[in-house]
Amino acid sequence: MSDEAKRRVVRVPIDKLVTIPDLVPKRDDTFVRLLVEAVGGKVPVYLAAVPLVSCVPFDLDYRPDLHPVGAAAIRSVLEEVKPGAAMIAYPRGKWFVIADDYIRLFAALRDRPDYIMCWILGKPDNELIRNIEGPVALKDVPKALGLK
């Protein structure tokens, strides 16, 4: 079976979805607020190459790599034909907080590229980022952030 055949969309009824308690990070209210404000046009969104060493997870105790399902998801990202989908981050001082893309972040930490692409919620002020583009047009924000 080809890799593409293995990666098919499966529709699951909502009542069949479950949560694995060990795979639920803490909620980041700042991230949620910034995401809502970005979609509403109140916060600009930029795309940039961010140094991996500048990216920090919001929930420092969340370790999907230590759970079999999380570890499998990380391996899946590492095996993608087109790796490197941009993560969503927001600036906090000189750091970039990753609050939602933990699986991709852990895959990047394993692969260790110098830079990772990030959609940045808010104007970044960091001389280490590269190839900054934006702000993204408001009509394009939902698609850029994976909401459409």
Describe the protein.
- The protein is of the alpha/beta class.
- It has one domain (3-144).
- Helices cover 27% and strands 21% of the residues.
- The chain contains five helices and six strands.
- The longest helix is centred in the first third of the chain and has 11 residues, at 29-39.
- The chain starts with a helix and ends with a helix.
Reported for the largest beta sheet, the result is: 6 strands, mixed
Shape: globular
- Spell the H/E element sequence: HHEEHEEHEEH
Judged by helices, strands and strand pairing, the structural class is: alpha/beta
Helix content: 25-40%
Strand line-up across the major sheet: 2-4-3-5-1-6
Residue runs with pLDDT of under 50 for 5 or more positions: none
What's the structural domain tally? 1
Task: List how many beta strands DSSP finds.
Answer: 6
End-to-end separation: 30 Å
Task: Enumerate how many helices there are, as a single number.
Answer: 5
Radius of gyration: 16 Å
Strand fraction band? 15-25%
What's the pLDDT, averaged over the residues? 82
Question: What does the secondary structure layout of this molecule look like, with pairings?
Answer:
Elements: H1 3-6, H2 29-39, E1 45-51, E2 55-57, H3 68-78, E3 87-92, E4 95-98, H4 102-111, E5 115-121, E6 130-133, H5 141-144
Parallel strand pairs: 2-4, 3-5
Antiparallel strand pairs: 1-5, 1-6, 3-4
Quick tags:
148 residues, alpha/beta, 6-stranded mixed beta sheet, 5 helices
Can you describe this structure in just a few lines?
It contains 5 helices and 6 strands, in the order H-H-E-E-H-E-E-H-E-E-H.
